[in-house]
User: Fold Receptor-like serine/threonine-protein kinase from Salix viminalis.
Amino acid sequence: MGSSSLFLFFSSTLLPYLCISGPITIQTIKQPFAASHFQYIDQSGVFLISSNGNFTASISNLDENSPYYFCITHVLSDAIIWIANRNHPISDSDKLYLTSNGLAINTADSSSNTSVAWSTQGLNSSSQVSAMQLQDSGNLVLLDRNNVSLWGSFDHPTDTIVMGQSLAVGTSVDCYTADNDRSDGDYRLVVTAGDAVLQWNRMSYWKLSAEPKGPITIQTIKQPFAASHFQYIDQSGVFLISSNGNFTASISNLEENSPYYFCITHVLSHAIIWIANRNHPISDSDKLYLTANGLAINTADSSSNTSVAWSTQGLNSSSQVSAMQLQDSGNLVLLDRNNVSLWGSFDHPTDTIVMGQSLAVGTSVDCYTADNDRSDGDYRLVVTEGDAVLQWNRMSYWKLSAEPKGSQDSLVPVSFLALNDTGLFLLGSDRSTVVIKLTLGPANFRVAKLGFDGRFRVTKFVDKNWVQEFVSPADDCQIPLICNKMGLCTSGRCSCPPNFHGDPLSKSGCTPTDASLALPSGCIDRKESNSSVFYVNLGSESDYFANGFMDPAKRDISLLACQDLCTRNCSCLGIFYGNSSASCYLLGNPLGSIMASSSSDRKLLGYMKTIVVSSRANKLNEATGFPIVGLILLPSSGVLLIIIVVLGFICWRRNRLYGTAKSKLGRSDSSSSELEIISVPGLPVRFNYEDLEAATESFSTQIGSGGFGTVYRGTLPDKSVVAVKKITNVGVQGKKEFCTEIAIIGSTRHVNLVKLKGFCAQGRQRFLVYEYMNRGSLDRTLFGNGPVLEWQERFEIALGTARGLAYLHSYCGHKIIHCDVKPENILLNDNLQVKISDFGLSKLLTPEQSSLFTTMRGTRGYLAPEWITGVTISDKADVYSYGMVLLEIVRGRKNSAAQPQSPSLENDSSEGNGSSSSSSGWEPRPAYFPLHALEMHEKKRYSELADSRLEGRVTNEEVRKLVKVALCCLHEDPSLRPAMVTVVSMLEGISPVTEPRQESLNFLRFYGRRFSEASRIEGSNERNEFGFSSSDRLMSCMSAQQLSGPR
Assistant:
């Protein structure tokens, strides 16, 4: 080090210590010497510094008003690397003494007695101590007069090892008890003759020799292979790098203390171009596995179960995977032994497209939800046969062909979207014909990315910086949710439309200025009727982002007819009407922002549908004379409807009896013949009718019944006990159920799903043969008069059910929606193993299919609200039903009851379906338990919700967890409900339990009040002045909520 460097070093490092009274000694202190914190208070207790200025010795405290320790500290990082008296902290006046016998901390005086807090007593030397020296390595040593070391702090470590320090065999490093308690903890690292071992209370739980090594592999990894972030922590999770060094594959987190993802990263720019498990982040110890079946990320082990966070399951190939390769383009591919690609990350993009990548028609790029949430957002870029389109909740708001900077070169159908070093292109099937192009300047590395703000950007990396080349939509107001729901966007500024007020950027948004009006909630709003609808004008020059990308609902129609079209459609929330074109546009859920019209050739009139909620409705009714007409028409219509139903039932009954009398099996019609020759991969054993008749002893032992048939106990020739389900409703829907169950259950295998062992299709007879679950359904065990189901058993049942549904929704070959999740369809065996049964109401979905069902299905009391709103039915409907079941598991009773019931009454009404109450007598209870659970959640009184029969034998934290998860599942908005995979993660404690959203649970209050009102009038049969009895009013009340409300 030169003289100038030496001067700067002393100026920056030592000067603050030297320019004070009681100077700090550099490197060596000779004995005798004494120091206390109080004596060196101006130096923060520091009395010795190493010659390189990197370490100090001091008597210091860790924070204000805490005791003091003699410690060694690294100057730049303020890290304490060693503490002498960790088990015996001292005061600021207690002193450290250096004598010929060594170092000692005395709590009162300098004599060697019981007041010694710490010392180096028993030095293994006949020499006397001459000096104390703090070496440049941070080692504090005691020297004799010949400078021979007699003792060193490196030989007596606390919880830290520094560079240059070595531990001899038998030495241990002990943890602290806590941040504010530096005494010895229970964990230690011990150096043995053969290893380095971690111990807890002398019991080993890890050793260095068993830790797998994690070198980074170049380009190709052969199976089998496994990797976790923890395993490759020294490489920041990186385990694979492309041969050109431009891309890495790693298991990494995006920021400190955040979850981990399996991702591909561009090295120079640090840009993440692909994430596998974006919807299911993992921990640093969870592993990625490469096997002959492909890639999979497991959250617990390597077996294929519900702990799979992500996988390449369902590879369209009969070949087995041989290797994983990260190509120079950034494409991660799986290869067979002939190096043929079986799967590639470029075919499964996330939010980013890179140079050399092409997307086929039908492929989409989905944005993230937020910077700190990489799950799928609401915006997507979709490649169609004619364009590249940006969508928000399936509604288009931008297309490449309309982009001013783009140009159309051909009218052939689009087959691919490609990004290269000259721009963005839509190409024909030959990959050379340019249909639409967006020409950009040359670039070495370029990406196209869809942001969570709804904008599509193309950027290039130049001179260590990102340069934006293209962004669209350029108009802020073209972003669907720029001003939230119902906000008006004008030149990028947000306000409320005319006749509305509020803050458009807040959650409450804009509401009608007239307090007597309210925005409708769609088909779930039962208050809506033709007479109570009022249209609020949005101004003469307003527009909606989707209007320019869709056809009108109707053309050549008047404004009043357009409004009437919306009034008669409960899913319509408003209209836009073109005066010049006489075109009618309908607004549906979800509703985005309103925009000031920017097109001179499309002047539209906007109107929002509102519901009259005050006395104004009465005035409107008086003006229209509705009550008189209603009183005349409603009874007449009801009588006519009853007559039609009775006549229909008589005809149906007569035809059924006639068919039954003809033949025991019935004639096989054309549809039956088709069913008998049905071929399904993995089809189970086919039985003859006579086989099942013998197995069930002529169907003598009935063990259950359901909406589509009766279940009998049977024994096959191999002595295995089975449950034989006879499908008695062999109409069109019965055949649908039968075919679905064979196709789905026969090929579905999971520990929490009932196994289909065989089937019978003979004549018109339909049977399904299941594995036998000897404890029956959950409703019998949970609600019956037998032994009370203990809390831990309930929790395991809840978890097992969640795992089964998660498998159906996310991990089997195709997404399966159960549609009838209820205790009766959750089966148990003697070990309380949980299996979900009855997929008869399921619909098998491929990713391309719509999730919309054409017929309503399920059981009242468990059906999600969207069944009657016209909203697309998704797997979130099962999540809602699971939430209802979860509350019943907590309570031990059905979720609803008109009045308190005794066990005998409940048993009389249950008819064996498991609706019985506690055997300890009847107890008062809320009419609608989900509402009571919501109210107790708001008061944080979760333990009061648990089954009283358990007499307190519950885990309060688990009660809280189940109730909060259940309420999250009951959100009225399906998009707010967690996926079942997330539910499993929350129940297992892998992910934190999210807070229920109060605003999406308010509908429970409506159901609860309506049910309570119905319960109060249930017992009365008095007629009112119009001739309606109380029971009539009860049925009317219940029909308004029969789907989502109590049953």
Notes: The longest strand covers residues 181-191.
